[in-house]
């Protein structure tokens, strides 16, 4: 909570109390005259700035009440300040709070009026001009402060119009437009001391107080008039005593008011956390004080920023230097790392190049090996088929069918490649032997019979023509050997099934190297006629070929 009264006010009040009896009438008349002159001056300027229409509620020579009512809505003030400093008040609430239409201000419009006034006061304060209290616009308020503010604004405007050279001066007092840094006057030591005694005041509130004090300086104001009036009829030797008396009263009053303010502050601080405080609408004075406090805090921040001690600057400089050194070191490290990475990359590139070369050589070797493998395979194939040739291009095997029970077999003896048969008496009793590539006895299995023909199947895939056929009288077992019995099992499969099975098995093994197309024909030679067993048309039943296998390299 900031202090909401000024030294000038206190002095004014004290002086008013002092010697009030003797000079009351005369003083009032002088003050009224002085105030009226200033008010008219302010009015003329306002009407000039915003025009007679804009200031329609403000007569050329308004009474104190008329002046207050005309400005109460804050609209006129906002228009004026926006003329002086465009955009100083960004939003001006218009209409309902117009004092003319709502003379006493309805509950709703009071708040809107206050918004205008508050915005105006904030803008004025930011410009460094003397302000007034929002309550000064209410009945019983001090219109002299409003007039003073308007005249200050006028002075500021004139200063701007003349080119804003040097510093802006108002009423003979030098006042920088920029945010103030030191508001303590040289001749205000007693007040300083007095304020120092109130050690509970923080710097912000102290500055608020001093800003208020400064803003209230007005040589031509009623304060000076009062002082002059008090001292006018005194003898010179009475003046020091009188001044001392007035000053001591001012001190006393001032301290009392500060004490009251802090008491109020403490009371509201206690009330706040208890939750007893209801949601009351803040009074215009409270809001004004809060706004002012914020503005002063902001000014203080700027002030502190501009007045950083040398030690702090040195400390910051050292800190920046340290950060700079660290960053410099980091950059060096990074450069070093970059160099290491670069050489690493070069090494990797060389290694990669070598490995690619090695890999190429390996691939080359593999290609050679593959080519050698194919050569060897080819040689192997040739050798293999040469072996088959050596075994004989035509091989004849004999298989003896198991005999029927109670019938004597004609077979006398079976050896590896020879079968001996008992010859009937009519052909001359005795034995006759026949030679074959191999003779299979009655107990020979299907697998044993196929084992001797198996190598020929591989020759088929190597491009050789192979023919396997069975020859014999009716019922001798040709179908049994080539196909198998009616109830076919894996073990009883004959040569055809086994040969085809091997054919597809080898084709699958060689699929990466060769692609084989396999086709099948079924023919029979019966009664010296070759017939196509798969032919559907009668004319094509006679066919001269047994198997045809096509192969090609991939
Ligand atoms: N090695 C064998 N083991 C067991 N049974 C056999 C054998 N050889 C042939 N047979 C049987 O003998 C019978 C006649 O055989 P198969 O039909 O194979 O003779 P085939 O020579 O084909 O006769 P066809 O010329 O009249 O067709 C069949 O019942 C068959 O099962």
Low-pLDDT segments, ≥5 res:
97-108, 172-220, 272-281, 545-553
| Ligand identities | adenosine-5'-triphosphate
Tally of discrete structural domains: 4
Percent of residues in helical segments? 55-70%
Q: What's the overall average pLDDT, rounded?
A: 75
Q: Nearest-angstrom radius of gyration?
A: 64 Å
Strand order of the largest sheet: 4-5-6
Number of H/I helices? 16
Number of strands: 11
The SS-based structural class is mainly alpha
Global geometry: rod-shaped
Strand-residue fraction?
Answer: 5-15%
Protein name: Minus-end-directed kinesin ATPase
GO biological process, one term: microtubule-based movement
Keywords: ATP-binding, Isomerase, Motor protein, Nucleotide-binding
EC number: 5.6.1.4
Quick tags:
554 residues; mainly alpha; three-stranded antiparallel beta sheet; two-stranded antiparallel sheet; 16 helices; rod-shaped; disordered C terminus; binds adenosine-5'-triphosphate
How does this model look, in words?
- By secondary structure, this protein is mainly α.
- It has four domains: 301 residues, no CATH class; 82 residues; 53 residues, no CATH class; 104 residues, Kinesin motor domain (Kinesin).
- The protein contains 16 helices and eleven strands.
- Strands 4-5-6 form a three-stranded antiparallel beta sheet, with no helix packed on it. A two-stranded antiparallel ribbon has the order 1-2.
- Helix 1 crosses helix 10 and helix 2 packs across helix 6.
- The longest helix has 82 residues.
- The protein is rod-shaped.
- The two termini are 100 Å apart.
- The C terminus is likely disordered.
- The structure holds adenosine-5'-triphosphate.
- The site of adenosine-5'-triphosphate has 11 residues, from helix 15.
